Amino acid sequence: MEKKVNRFFGASTEIQAKWLNRMASEGWKLIRTGKMSYEFESCDPGKVQYAVEFIADKSQKNAEDYKAFLEGCGYKVWYKNANLSYSVGKVRWRPWAEAGGQITTSWTTYNKELLIVEKENDGKPFELHTTATDRIGFLKKWRNVWLTYTTMFFLMGILFLFQTPIASIVFGGLGLLSLIPVVLYQEQIRKIKKMDDLQE
Amino acid sequence: MRDNAKSGALTEVTFFVLLALYEPRHGYAIMQFIEDKTNGRLVLGAGSLYGAIDSLCKKGWIELYDDSDVRKKEYRITDLGKQIAEQELARLTEVTQIAEEIIGG
Could A132 and B2 be called an inter-chain contact, meaning their C-beta atoms sit closer than 8 Å? Predict the structure, then answer.
């Protein structure tokens, strides 16, 4: 039996993984993904486990290499979009990405921001990242995404300062708001680093 | 990979990846090697392993051995890597000796 469910989780990897794992525990395994939909077929409840990873900071070459590596580990892997844009000639700048991944287009890494990874359930928790260095890397990735927004909002705020003070206030406010996740991620990074001095 | 600059201690993951590659292995085989040898105490996530392989290649401690199957690229330890692993063994032996003297073996 198959079924199609319409859902969109944006870039939130954890909520998406949790939902996919709940579907799996109810006996549904993924067969296909669409822009805003997921197609499942029935399976034994809890037969598979899912993890979702944000890979938009990788270049196309490294993203493909990483996907092939995970497939070599015996996992099933799907690309998933984190945006809802249908335009074909899309080009976007990602200042927080690695070299080679900063300019993304619809022909390369745009709409392939996430990887959904499926593993046969072996009773152990399914985690792709298990070392402290890696967890810090993961947090830094998200901190930098938000920091980019903060910088852009503040720059816009300065730009409008003399002509349209209202716009300037709005951008300044948005800048401050986007600073909240930056601080929260930084705090988590600090905590892990402190632990890291005592224990690996 | 966080290597202590003062003592030269390797992380456990680094050391085990080096040990696994005394024979050519691909990613999944490295994961299995580590899990088997430690009886499941040390489980390495595939994403973390991918990062570890990448940084060890950059350091020149391991190298690509066979990439005919893009999904199962095989790696092996280099001479430099063996030297690093031997140093780590010597360091661990010293630590174990001191600990046994104090705690009582």
Answer: yes
What chain B holds in terms of domains, given with CATH numbers, is 12-104 (1.10.10.10)
Q: Which residue of B has its CA nearest to A200?
A: B11
Q: Which helix (H) or strand (E) holds A157?
A: helix A132-159
Partner residue facing B45 (CB), from A130, A132, A196: A130
**pTM: predicted TM-score of the whole model, two decimal places:** 0.83
Using CA atoms, how far apart are residues A37 and A34, in angstroms rounded to an integer?
5
- Could you give the 3-state DSSP secondary structure of residue B41? coil
Read off φ and ψ for residue A120, nearest 5 degrees.
Answer: -65, 130
Q: B4 falls in which pLDDT band (50, 70, 90)?
A: very low
Provide the residue count of chain A: 200
CA distance B58 to B62: 8
Q: What is the mean pLDDT of residues B23-39?
A: 96
